[in-house]
Amino acid sequence: MKKRRLIFGMISGLLIIFIIVTASNAMLVTSRQPSPQPTVVMINEVKAVEHLSKAITYKTISYQKRSKFDFTEFDKFISFLEESYPSIHTQLELEKINEYGLIYKWQGSDSSKNPIGLTSHYDVVPVLEGTEDNWEQPPFSGTVENDKIWGRGTLDDKVGVIGILEAVEFLINDGFKPARDVYLMFGFDEEIGGDEGALKIVNTLKARGVTFDFVLDEGGAIVENMVPGVDQPVGVVGISEKGSATSELSIEGSGGHSSQPKNHTNIGRIAGAIAKLEDTQFKGDLRGPGEDLFEYVAPEMSFPMRYVFANKVIFEPIIEQILLQQPATAALIRTTIAPTIFQAGEQYNALPEKATAIINHRLMPGDSLEDVKSFIEDTIEDDAINVTVTGSEASKVSSTNGWEFKSIQQAARNVYKDAIIAPYLMFAGSDAKHYDSISKNTYRFLPVQITSQDLNRMHGTNEHISKDNFINAIKFYAEIIKESNS
To answer: Which residues pair with 220 in a beta bridge?
Structure first.
């Protein structure tokens, strides 16, 4: 009996110590957010809105077939920029790369400092044929109505191009002079990979030995209800973007008449392989940029959630299981599997001699193309199925510890004082990946507040932005230039 009481007492004591230690960890977590210094940037809002509205009217559309590009629209857009921003075109050097890629160089006063770069793209995706009548306002009208600016590019990404130029024009006219060189770099084919725009810009600058302390591109934004336990909006800054790979699973064999099928047909074997992959999935692992996100938001969480994340070492398996329940958070911690194309057969009563499936993957930092191939082969366990994997791995992970990331944080807080600014892993692709080779850090952040509906509108129907959102984007770009030169 005494022995039992002793054991019970020891367990109780250990439990009390555990509670004290873990609760202390939660209590001692401190905020990683800088104090806001409210912006004093005063934009001519009417003129700025007019400029974005006009920019939308140019059909600078990127098509998968480059032969479909209408470069007269691109020429008109560039002429529009020259007319709309006279101070920039008087005081900054403009160089055109591959005719339509734009580099503006704002000379700084201290040549010992590395430059910074702000980049966006002015090409847009086409409007899906047959959906034109679903738009509340014509997609290339630039209509301004009910405090909203409508049209393709208002979110992706003429808002970035015009936002940056408005900010620089304001700063020049306000007498601001940067200490370090500031480059403004605008691509024209980002929507199809950026190979003729951003990549050519990068190759040009690399040949000249230009190295940036950081380049800031589009990417994450300020969103609400993204992180459990956090009531404030969260501004997510991409410090890396996932790789994009395509795996092809193919099998060839005798076909034959459908009246005498084998137990396992070509279609059945490929379908079975896909089912195995979807049932197995890559292992979730809260690491890298995903882990950084929660380290930055944990101090702002309600106490129960803060308790869990402050003791991540203990609760990590539970956290990972929770994150894996939703597609958006699952993608934050694992390489994804998305079957997108299945090709087999031509006639209803003939067994196909070949079946092929295409799977899109978004790779976590640290996962290689070879890792993906090995995972597929080990999972499907079918030597008759040929597996090939092509694509790109994740970009490098940029620092959150230096002045570069802290400047972005501060600039965002100066404009959005209630937002929590945190690093994260970007799922989609951007031109930023091209700049990795000439920049110590590449960040991905579109300084606007967006909703889940806005995300669907970016490449979909009824893309638009509020006037306030656009004006705040301009203020952010002005603030990041000032913060980087303080």
So the answer is: 445
